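Practice problem: predict the structure.
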Amino acid sequence: MSETTFELDPRLAADTVLVASLALCDVRLMNDTRFPWLVLTPRRAGLVEICDLADDEQCVLWREVKLASQALRETAPHDKLNLGALGNIVRQLHVHVVGRREGDAAWPGPVWGSGKAVAYEAEALARMLEALRKALAR
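Answer:
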């Protein structure tokens, strides 16, 4: 990852689909139907931790996390919302917004490393992206 040009980590690019670009972050859908799961990645090069963002950008990040959380709530009902910025495998700063349902494929444990992803079929992916984009535009 270059210090001057933002590039999305190849693992995030491979596992997600772009939903929308907000003021700071790209919002991406994890391509796994088992969990309603968004990933927000600030379009800034060289970031690893939230504290690497300027103070004003940290505020923007949390507003965008809130917006993504609300969009996920509208489009994919869930019992609990999990937020995380782990970065143990993908070091590039990104925030997970995951809707959890009691009895889902990983319940009550974490979604990371739980089984094999089940990719969206083309039509279902298109519907989910359309619904999320509509909700994010509100």
